[in-house]
Amino acid sequence: GGGGGGSEGEGALLLSVSTDQLRSLCRRRPAVLLRLASLLLQAVPPILRTLDHCAEWRVLRPGDEATDDLDGEPSVLIVQCGRLRLFAASENEPADGAAAAAAAPP
């Protein structure tokens, strides 16, 4: 049917607005910016909103690596979207469960 979310197999409705036009609209009508932020937050799973205050967000491109520690402390990697390929520590590294991840190509 028409309107919002749609179901599987319906395709997508796309609205394109230039960055300059959106910036101008948000300056003239700040409520638009607040509504956009609200819509974007609804798309983020609740657990990620809860963890956001203590998380470090990173964007990985295919082939980029992410280690499983931040500031030398073990950490958890949560993939918001996309895929990571996990590699175990090599034989010449300490066997402390360390791992590395690389963004997988699409």
What does this structure look like?
This protein has 106 residues and is an alpha+beta fold. The chain is built from three helices and five strands, in the order H-H-H-E-E-E-E-E. A three-stranded antiparallel sheet has the order 1-5-4, with no helix packed on it. A two-stranded antiparallel ribbon has the order 2-3. A hairpin with a 2-residue loop joins strand 2 (69-70) and strand 3 (73-74). The longest helix has 14 residues, at 30-43.
Outline of this structure?
The chain has 106 residues and is an alpha+beta fold.
The amount of helix comes to: 25-40%
User: Which overall shape is indicated by the principal axes computed on the Cα atoms?
Assistant: elongated
Broad structural category: alpha+beta
User: What is the count of β-strands?
Assistant: 5
Oligomer: single chain
Order of H and E elements: HHHEEEEE
Distance between the termini: 31 Å
* Relative strand content: 15-25%
The largest pleated sheet is described as: 3 strands, antiparallel
